[in-house]
Amino acid sequence: MAILIVFCLFAPLPLWLIETLLPFPYLIEEIFKFFIVKKTPSKTNYLYPLILGIVFSISETMLYLTNFFLLGNFTNLINRLIFTTILHTLTFTLQYFAKNNHYLSIIMLIVSILIHYFYNLSVR
């Protein structure tokens, strides 16, 4: 289980590089989460997707620090960290609780993609 947490810690960098070629972060990140959740053991508790979401969000926010340095404005950094943490923990949790049912997991993947898509629209 710890390996998945470490994987989520470092995943935003390669995902960010992929997103420069395919500018669909909501799709790429949620498909990544889908496969991570599928690899989690069934005996893990409900805290596990929360931990994955928090680790992923912190790592992603650290990547976005370069944007804040370039803009010279750090006022939105805390807001970004809070709201992306809510977003990523929510989508990890939705996919986690549906992982044992194939059809429900596909539905939750689509729901997660839509949530992420509308979140990205709202923060631009």
Question: What does this 3D model show about the protein?
Answer:
By secondary structure, the chain is an all-alpha fold. The protein has one domain. It has 6 helices and no strands. The N and C termini lie far apart (34 Å). The mean pLDDT is 89.
Write the layout of secondary structure elements.
Blueprint: H1 2-10, H2 12-21, H3 25-39, H4 47-71, H5 77-97, H6 102-123
Helix pairs in contact: 1-4, 3-5, 3-6, 4-5, 5-6
Defining key terms:
mainly alpha, 124 residues
**Record field, number of beta strands:** 0
**Dominant shape:** globular
Helix proportion: over 70%
- Report the mean per-residue pLDDT as an integer: 89
Main sheet characteristics = none
Contiguous low-pLDDT stretches (5 residues minimum) are none
Oligomeric assembly: single chain
Radius of gyration: 14 Å
Taking the alpha carbons of the first and last residues, their distance comes to 34 Å
Please state roughly what percent of the residues sit in beta strands, choosing from under 5%, 5-15%, 15-25%, 25-35%, 35-45% or over 45%: under 5%
Q: Spell out the helices and strands N to C.
A: HHHHHH
Structurally, the number of domains stands at 1
Secondary structure class reads mainly alpha
